[in-house]
Automatic annotation (TrEMBL):
Keywords: Oxidoreductase. GO terms for molecular function: coenzyme F420 binding; oxidoreductase activity, acting on the CH-CH group of donors. InterPro entries: F420H2_bilvrd_red/Heme_oxyg (IPR052019), MSMEG_5819/OxyR (IPR024031), Pyridox_Oxase_N (IPR011576), Split_barrel_FMN-bd (IPR012349). This is Pyridoxamine 5'-phosphate oxidase family protein. It comes from Actinophytocola oryzae.
């Protein structure tokens, strides 16, 4: 398994993340996107309105690379940031048969296309911490897959 149980719990409670892809000219594109953790594939599935026509979808189709971050503040007093960063290979899938979004696509009006991220490097911070002192938080980083 790529993700720890606490990372899966955190990701399952979030709905918005930031996807970074590389454009053909080498510049980076960062986009806020909706996502779901796909238990069956152990991947992150990203969907949205007009996904198949989007620049981010074409970027992934052209080079198969992506990074993705989900973060929030558990509290501001004390300061408790949390995040999971995922670096990996990505697929632009026009008509997936195993999308984590399958049951919601019709309701949300999405075109069904997804970007699927296969984790290769995972970095998490502030998740499952028991201390209130952010300076004592441990960074969990590892290569997977």
């Amino acid at each position: 398994m790529s993700f720890t149980d606490i990372e899966i719990e955190y990701l399952s409670g979030q709905r918005l993340g930031r996807l970074a892809t590389t454009q053909p000219d080498g510049t980076l594109q960062a986009s806020p996107v909706g996502f779901l953790y796909n238990e069956e594939t152990g991947t992150i599935d990203i969907a949205g309105h007009g996904m198949a026509r989007s620049r981010k979808f074409r970027n992934v189709a052209e080079n198969g690379r992506a990074a993705f971050v989900v973060d929030d503040l558990a509290s501001i007093q004390p300061w408790r940031p949390r995040c999971v960063e995922i670096r990996g290979t990505a697929e632009a899938i026009a008509a997936p048969i195993d999308s984590a979004w399958a049951s919601a696509i019709g309701q949300l009006g999405f075109d069904g296309a997804i970007i699927r991220i296969h984790p290769k490097r995972i970095i998490s911070f502030g998740i499952g911490e028991t201390t209130d002192d952010v300076r004592e938080f441990k960074i969990n980083k590892r290569t997977v897959g």
